[in-house]
Specification:
The complex is a heterodimer. By secondary structure, chain A is mainly alpha-helical. Chain A has helices at about 10-30, 35-40, 55-75, 85-100, 105-115, 120-145. Chain A is built from 6 helices and no strands. The relative contact order of chain A is 0.11. Classes of the chains: A mainly alpha, B mainly alpha. The interface between A and B is large, with 119 and 120 residues.
């Protein structure tokens, strides 16, 4: 088990930046900033009426963010993986499939949907959070916290 | 090309560059937000979800912060007639009802998220500097998304 420290202020500030980016997306492009929707629409079958160009720029921005962060602050980005490679790959498939079938993920439903007081997003968020808490508990009690 | 033609073309071209630059900047703000908040660290996400383990409730503050600016922000923005760079808002309008069709997908997403501690945004910030594990995650996530899109089409 990897211990992580409680960081309420940094997390709150980071959350504000995430909320701000969602607002800027709506203000400039009139769209929901949902990463699963933005990424999955680059895949076939082609989505009609979807202007992909700013979304590619957005994705590039997210990918280079850790490099910019490292260059400007000099500190690295902590990333500790918590699953074995096989479980990581299986989980990644479920993340992709589930976020498309569920019409959104943490950013689209959890941030944008809840901010717009969407009952639909609320029900999706309660569902994925609920399943995630239960899954983490199962991993803890059946697999000693690591699979 | 006459002067007047080039002047007419200059405007859409610069608008296009502006749109890309703004998209890139928003992606940067979002990515830095994921890093500062701790969402980009799989162990921190898992510890948030693992309330019977080394519980770290920090990520509740991420959602709290995002929604605290999101609620008033969206309220103001949706009062506008149109977005700054596009012709019309394309925001979901089916928000008032629980949509049972999406709940199995949400459950599958929650399962994968808890297994790995990674959701789609952090999958992208992890790409730089985390080797094959991060690349493999994104490839498998894209495969899952592709299957989902084919099923839905």
């Amino acid at each position: 088990m990897i211990e992580t420290s409680f960081t309420p202020l940094a997390s709150l500030f980071g959350g504000i930046l995430i909320g701000l980016s969602a607002l800027l997306t709506a203000l400039f492009y009139g769209r929901i900033m949902g990463v699963s929707g933005i990424v999955s629409r680059l895949l076939p079958p082609r989505a009609s009426g979807w202007n992909q160009q700013w979304t590619i720029a957005f994705i590039v921005g997210v990918i280079v963010a850790p490099l910019i962060w490292q260059l400007t602050t000099g500190s690295g980005v902590t990333a500790q993986f918590v699953a074995s490679p096989i479980v990581l790959m299986v989980g990644a498939f479920f993340v992709g499939l589930g976020s498309v079938m569920g019409n959104g993920c943490t950013s689209g439903h959890g941030v944008c949907g809840l901010s717009r007081l969407s009952l639909r997003s609320f029900s999706a968020t309660v569902t994925f959070m609920g399943v995630a808490f239960v899954t983490a508990a199962v991993i803890r009690f059946l697999f000693q916290g690591y699979i | 090309m006459s002067n007047s033609t080039s002047r007419r073309l200059a405007s859409p071209a610069s608008a296009h560059v502006l749109s890309l630059a703004i998209g890139l900047s928003i992606g940067l703000v979002f990515g830095i937000g994921l890093i500062v908040s701790g969402m980009s660290n799989p162990a921190k996400v898992r510890n948030f979800l693992d309330i019977f383990g080394a519980w770290d409730p920090s990520l509740a503050f991420v959602m709290g912060g995002a929604i605290a600016v999101g609620v008033p922000g969206f309220w103001f923005i949706q009062r506008r007639l149109k977005p700054v760079l596009t012709e019309s808002f394309e925001l979901p309008t089916n928000c008032g009802v629980v949509d049972r069709k999406i709940l199995p997908g949400a459950a599958a997403f929650g399962f994968g998220w808890a297994l790995t501690g990674i959701c789609p945004g952090p999958a992208l910030t992890l790409l730089a500097g985390n080797g094959l594990l991060a690349v493999g995650f994104v490839v498998m996530m894209l495969l899952g998304m592709l299957v989902g899109r084919v099923i839905k089409a």
